[in-house]
Design goal:
globular; single chain; mainly alpha; two-stranded antiparallel sheet; two-stranded antiparallel ribbon
């Protein structure tokens, strides 16, 4: 699992226990990102827990780059454990994406620090609210979910467990998608004109964070034909977003 032969020092087998444990840990951090990143469209109050988890997530994805440089891969059914070939393969696949996302992490960390230093005095400007959409670049990591779920599926030993896991995965995917849509719907309202958006027209801007989120989630579920909600777009930007959501649904 940890290859230490000459010329292959500290290389990890892609199916080894250490690599599987790393992928499972990565899936946990990825699920955290899926939940927290879209939630940032709301005015979430700062907390030490969120700050600690944010730094832990950043450090993990930085370490994942080095881990990827040390993990072999299969090419045409053959295991490749040459460090040079591993680096070449990683550079041709995920390296650029990982570097972009890591760069966005640092940009948003700097932006959050700037916002927190002024949020007590001045309301967030429209430009700052638009910057929040930059966080969605970090959702590129969702493309890695299939590899990580494959690692988890390998641990299941029975047919019943596989069926239960498949049902749970479908339900989790639907919940994840509606969570993202709900948060985006609020973000679209925030990015629209201050005096003409659905948030202002419904008086949602003066409600609590919990009520804002549950209202947006209710709206997102209604787009799937599950119930109804009396919330309508009031400008072109919001109308276009609604059309895209209905089309996707």
């Amino acid at each position: 699992h940890l290859i230490t032969t000459r010329g292959r020092c500290c290389l990890f087998h892609p199916g080894g226990r250490r690599r599987k444990a790393w992928d499972i840990m990565g899936m946990c951090f990825l699920l955290y990102d899926i939940f927290v990143i879209p939630l940032r469209f709301f005015d979430v109050p700062p907390s030490m827990l969120l700050d600690a988890m944010g730094w832990a997530t950043m450090l993990f994805w930085h370490a994942d780059i080095f881990m990827s440089f040390s993990t072999g891969f299969f090419h045409q059914g053959l295991l490749e454990m040459s460090r040079c070939q591993i680096a070449k393969h990683y550079a041709q696949t995920w390296l650029i994406f990982d570097l972009i996302v890591v760069s966005v992490d640092w940009i948003m960390t700097w932006a959050d620090a700037s916002v927190q230093s002024t949020a007590r005095v001045v309301r967030l400007s429209k430009n700052i609210r638009l910057i929040r959409f930059l966080r969605l670049v970090r959702m590129i990591r969702l493309a890695k979910m299939s590899r990580m779920t494959d690692t988890f599926e390998d641990q299941l030993q029975s047919q019943a467990a596989m069926i239960q896991y498949s049902i749970l995965k479908v339900l989790a995917s639907m919940l994840m998608l509606n969570h993202i849509i709900a948060c985006l719907w609020f973000g679209v309202g925030e990015a629209s004109d201050d005096n003409l958006n659905w948030i202002k027209s419904t008086g949602l801007d003066s409600r609590t964070l919990a009520y804002q989120y549950t209202t947006c989630m209710h709206w997102a579920l209604a787009q799937l034909g599950v119930g109804s909600v009396e919330i309508e777009p009031v400008n072109t930007f919001e109308r276009i977003f609604c059309i895209l959501v209905v089309f996707a649904s």
